[in-house]
């Protein structure tokens, strides 16, 4: 979900605080059963009027995206089940004064609203040089929200803080990623704190003077709900683990499709969102398995039909590949075992060139050519194959078959050359 954002026309300075509080609503039967699960999001912002005219309204957006990076699936969901004003139940205040509001846009997946500095008792504009706190809240069901919250810094901000308040019985865990204007992503620079009391588990995080165009994304998982949903035999195979972490598995048609390229820089915003999804997936996977040789993940592997991939080299360096293609290969090759997150129960011996030249694009559309060698070349070539609808098994020599991971002896060892 992209939380409400301010109108870019007014040169405010702000301190912003956000809270998302999921609530489990139970029926009155003897054995509780959940009938409705909702999020109640509260945004608090301190606004300062740096203009020479009074401010009489403030634009916010309530926007949801259940399947980020997969607009077709999200659009289908909201066409069938659009957001309604009744379920949103928008409420807004300026200090202690309720605020009226006026609809600007009403769409299936987002609403734009002018919060008015007025109510039934009169008007209270924000005059030049004055500052005030405003607060607004709304509700969205978890079938339309999704387990993530994102804030983009679009105007100068002194402090940004987020508080996530969950029922402790759901056993929630939270992690966060920061994405820069160049689409590079990395974990939060400061830790997310955790406190548990009165049956709630509260996660808090803040940052001072965040840079313009930075994007902060928090994701969460309810471990208790996953156990309830997956009741039955315990999953033990590597592939089942990857499936549980959101990695598309072999047999899904998207792995055999050529991924759609980005039109950059026109689709820069879409590219950033896909890259953020890839980084989140990589973190989940890296927490479940050690990748001494490095690792990568391509957008089709998380169900997104776009030409983007990220690769983490053994050194820890991460590279983002947008619209990549191999333009030259070395004549010299070697053959080594590879694994794939989309069928992680086996390893296959794959011949590849020892060096490749790759043309790819920056988020602003600038084209680059990068040379990769040896193990790095193998990692990059593997991910580019995914974007071209190929799997490493397509490159194995005739008659050679993958071996079970239990027979593979290279786990925990670096590439040898």
UniProtKB/TrEMBL annotation:
Catalytic activity: N-terminal N-formyl-L-methionyl-[peptide] + H2O = N-terminal L-methionyl-[peptide] + formate
Active site: 383
Superkingdom to which the source organism belongs: Bacteria
Keywords: Hydrolase, Iron, Metal-binding, Protein biosynthesis
Enzyme class, broadest EC rank: hydrolase
GO terms for MF: metal ion binding; peptide deformylase activity
EC id: 3.5.1.88
Residues where Fe cation binds: 340, 382, 386
Cofactor binding comment, as recorded: Binds 1 Fe(2+) ion.
InterPro entries linked to this entry: Peptide_deformylase (IPR023635), Peptide_deformylase_sf (IPR036821)
One BP term from GO: translation
A Pfam family this chain is assigned to: Pep_deformylase
Cofactor: Fe(2+)
Gene3D superfamilies documented for this protein: Peptide deformylase
Protein's job: Removes the formyl group from the N-terminal Met of newly synthesized proteins. Requires at least a dipeptide for an efficient rate of reaction. N-terminal L-methionine is a prerequisite for activity but the enzyme has broad specificity at other positions.
PANTHER family: PEPTIDE DEFORMYLASE (PTHR10458)
Similarity comment: Belongs to the polypeptide deformylase family.
Protein name: Peptide deformylase
Organism, as annotated: Carbonactinospora thermoautotrophica
